[in-house]
Amino acid sequence: MSEVVSLHSACKRYGRIVALEDATMTLQPGETVALVGHNGAGKTTLMKLVLGLARPTAGRVRVLGEDPAGSRGAEVRRRIGFLPESVAFHDAMTGSELLAFYAGLKGSARAANRELLERVGLAAAADRRVATYSKGMRQRLGLAQALLGDPGLLLLDEPTSGLDPESRAQVYETIDSLRRRNVTVLVSTHALAEIEHHVDRVALLHHGQLIALGAIAALREAAALPIIVRLTVRTCTTERVLAQVSGCATMLERDTGSLVLAVQPACKLEFLEQLGRLRPWLADVEIEAPGLTALYRHLVSQRESAA
Amino acid sequence: MTAPLVVAAQELRAGVRNRWVIATTLLLAALALSLALLGSAPTGTLGADPLAVVVVSLASLSIFLVPLIALLLSFDAVVGEAERGTLLLLLSYPLARWQIVVGKFLGHATILALAIVLGYGAVAVVLLLTEQVALQAWSAFATLIGSTILLGAAFLALGALSSVVVRERATAAGLAVTLWLLFVLIYDSALLGLLVADQGRIVTPAVVDALLLLNPADAYRLLNLAGDEAVATLAGMAGPGEAARLPQGLLLASLAGWIAAPLGLAVVVFGRRQP
After folding, report:
1. Shortest CA distance from B96: residue in chain A
2. What is the ipTM metric for this complex?
3. CB A204 within 8 A of CB A296
């Protein structure tokens, strides 16, 4: 079995609440997958199933070929690094003490801890109590403990929530370096637009249902979302421009000096060719490919109208 | 190091860090020393063995204090981690849930044992330097220290159980206080009331023995106050006391049972819990 993680029709219910329904997905070795969804969409539940902390109500979960909630669960968890959402630590302990404790639990060599703290930029604060840490520093300590023992699979639950842009960039850098080292990463997030370029595939969760799974480009193609084009035109030429491109673009907004158009991906090139002919009237062109956010909205509204 | 020992070591480290160890040791030492110094005043130089006096007063004091300290140490073992938000991370590590419960218990027991040995040991040192102590009294004193640790461990186990059966730290605290009141204060009064009301019709001496064994505090009391002859004389437990007949082995078994049963139950309850 080559998959690192496989979920087969996995369901998780807490009483009458359905946290995850009929989720089927796999993670291939070295793959980075983003788990995207609103609060309570089932992202953390899915991670708990992978960690073996919750047993699926129905369906099957396999991690590294084993049942993580079974008798060999501890062995599976030894090879997983996990960063929980809004990670917390014992405040009275120092960063290096906590890392030593977690290394002890994981059975990994403590000699590597220094280097790990340096890698996440906590070397200077290693001997300070965690109570004095900022949220960003705690998150980095959380990342350090997740990286203990060089795990083959990393689960990062909302690693960027509540962080400033610089700390977020650091998290993405870490994800990129893990990708380069062929570590399998499952990262859950709200920050759709930010994660886009750091993952191979996305899994969209909505109210406990896996509504889409695939490479972003493929999902985009399947959804056939229009490309948004903003044109800045010379005054009083909007009508002329519109007449030229009406074949493959629909107008969303217009003004005396600007136009917002929706272009179907299929006739993107044809549209650009037409734009070329309009060169004398154009002052500026802005082309916006549909991002993950637009894709997410589209898929959610599609799902809701189907229901 | 195996996982429970790693957890225990961390718990001990936390105990040192948040000054639990030093505070408990100082409290026990201060009380023990004041009892020893005040206790020798009324007996005078011709009185009973000074160490035997200390054993009687310390045992009576420990019955109230040590269970309380133990419950305070352990009542939030698991629920505290959950409330702090550190439980999920701990569970994601390669250790079984029983290892968390047992590891924390071992850590707390070490803290308590340290405080008892150092605190009560201070008295022994003082008496050794100032008084003549009979050899037999030393064995009673050793029994006191050993059984006090066992008594503490029994209530640590009860505290651990409190920490897994409820969802909130405050509820666990309430439960722990209730357990203390029940075992340390209410149980004996209820037993006494029962004896008076029953007038020996149903509650035979054998039933009383069994009822005493069902409370770790009573098992501890009998072990210390009735076990040694010199001590028993001082404690007023010598002579025809029915309960004094209970063998030491049985009393120790009661304490051991009160450690194993709540701890085992805590492991079972925690194992079923959804994080």
Report:
1. A74
2. 0.86
3. yes
